[in-house]
Specification:
The complex is a heterodimer. Chain A is mainly beta. Chain A has one helix spanning 2-11, and strands spanning 36-46, 53-64, 69-78, 85-102, 105-118, 134-146, 149-161, 176-189, 200-212, 218-230, 234-246, 254-264. The radius of gyration of chain A is 18 Å and the shape is globular. In chain B, strand 2 (60-66) and strand 3 (71-76) form a beta hairpin. The longest helix of chain B has 26 residues, at 3-28. Residues 17-26 of chain B have low confidence and may be disordered. Classes of the chains: A mainly beta, B alpha+beta.
Chain lengths: 269, 180
């Protein structure tokens, strides 16, 4: 449910080849040094076990610390308990350590890690440190760009801890998981660039899966999305998250995801 | 001495003075324009990241971008002391790499040939793979060093240019130029 969409939020950084500015996963490339990105991600997921929708709001600030390192901080706000409440936050870092670039193509690999805290109740099997669980995640991502197409794969280990002394992690659930993603992106428009002002349109298809290490339960989601890049500086992503299968308890796995993002260049040295 | 001879001497002095002036400009070997192809990108947002890096440099007058070929033409202020390294630094800060760098440099009567070294304020340039010739006026030269050509091209060049010891050494303080 909500969990899922949350995870993807983190993901995208600005200013990379747009085709790899994935909506729900993060590519191996980073933001430019000194740039700051401001992002607002929202998801509206249909509740499975009760009526209504679960709404999540996730403001995020991203910074290109140097050519290889970028850092994100996010806040997690949701209406899980009726009113919109800030439930937690996270810090994320990604370090690009391998790059083979050529004319209009690259292959890059990065390592990433996240630490999150969240005070909400734990009410599903899925582990998601982007808005649902306190804990951490560490993994690797590899991205190949060839002209108008980008393909990215990632794998990570995610460990959940107690959310609070009251909202403890249930002892009968697996508190760690293996995550894997596969993303495709393609530049659809323009065929030929004219200037920086021209709106770019990208079509994305992403797959996100998780397996709980202690009991083998798993899920797989597919996320088709459309992305508009405006003035080579702002981004609007519209996505739909659809569960393909799941053997774990998830409370809201299907829904809409909207992300707005704006980059400011050369803010820091 | 008659007036004519005096005039001639004055003229000679003037010519010498002009020559000295030209010579000293010459030794500055500054870059007035850089045509650069960046690698690892196709999207306009990525090109914009590089564009903004260049525009943030005080030495830059203007930047022209061809988004379809990821080519940036950077016009530099007169008297700048920028080196190819500072341009590379900016591209890499944006998250990309240089695939090709062609510099426009004003030369005055420079006798270019293999292994001829010319000094600039913050660096030096060495001609390689260059037939003996006299360079005068704005001249285009290609930088052949590692990080200024694609990774594939550099591999080829280390073989084909192995007879130039300074090129193989890959010294950070000098750049190897080929006239175009």
């Amino acid at each position: 449910m909500k969990y899922i969409f949350v995870s993807f939020l983190i993901v995208v950084s600005l200013n990379i080849s747009a085709q790899e500015l994935f909506v729900v996963t993060e590519p191996a490339s980073n933001m430019p040094t000194g740039a700051i990105g401001v992002r607002i991600a929202q998801s509206l997921m249909k509740e499975k076990f009760k009526s209504g929708y679960n709404y999540h709001l996730m403001p995020e600030i991203m910074w290109g610390a140097n050519k290889n390192l970028m850092i994100h901080t996010s806040a997690f706000i949701s209406n899980r308990n009726r009113d919109l409440v800030t439930e937690g936050g996270s810090v994320y870092a990604k370090y690009r350590f391998f790059s083979v670039d050529d004319i209009q193509q690259h292959f890059r690999v990065a390592a990433f890690g996240r630490y999150s805290f969240n005070n909400s109740d734990i009410h599903q099997d899925e582990i998601n440190t982007m808005g649902h669980n306190s804990g951490y995640e560490a993994g690797l991502v590899a991205t190949q760009l060839i002209k108008k197409v980008a393909i990215s794969v990632s794998g990570s280990y995610e460990q959940a801890v107690n959310n609070t002394t009251v909202n403890k992690f249930p002892t009968n659930q697996s508190n760690n998981a293996t995550n894997y993603t596969l993303s495709f992106g393609r530049l659809m428009y323009p065929n030929k660039y004219k200037n920086f002002k021209q709106t770019n349109i990208n079509l994305m298809m992403e797959f996100m899966g998780q397996t709980l290490n202690e009991n083998g339960k798993s899920f797989l989601d597919v996320v088709p999305s459309l992305q508009f890049i405006i003035n080579s500086q702002a981004r609007i992503d519209v996505a739909y998250i659809k569960q393909i299968y799941s053997s774990m308890k998830r409370t809201a796995s299907n829904g809409l995801y909207l992300k707005l993002e704006y980059s400011l260049f050369n803010v820091t040295k | 001495m008659n007036l004519r001879v005096i005039k001639l001497i004055k003229m000679k002095n003037f010519i010498v003075l002009v020559l000295i002036t030209i010579f000293s400009i010459n030794t500055k070997a500054q870059i007035v324009k850089a045509e650069l192809v960046a690698t690892g990108l196709t999207c306009s947002m990525c090109s914009n990241a590089i564009n903004k890096q260049f525009k943030n440099m005080p030495e830059v007058v203007r930047v022209e971008t061809d988004l379809n070929t990821n080519t940036f033409t950077v016009y530099l202020k007169d008297g700048n002391t920028l080196t190819p390294e500072s341009l590379k630094d900016k591209v890499e800060k944006a998250g990309f790499f240089i695939g090709s760098l062609i510099l426009t440099m004003p030369f005055n009567n420079v006798k270019a040939a293999d292994n001829v070294k010319i000094d600039a304020k913050n660096t030096s340039y060495i001609f390689i793979d260059t037939k003996p010739q006299t360079l005068t006026g704005e001249t285009k030269v290609k930088v052949l060093d590692k990080g200024f050509v694609t990774q594939k091209e550099y591999k080829k060049l280390t073989k084909s240019l192995s007879k130039y010891p300074s090129y193989v050494q890959n010294n950070d303080n000098s750049f190897h130029l080929k006239t175009l």
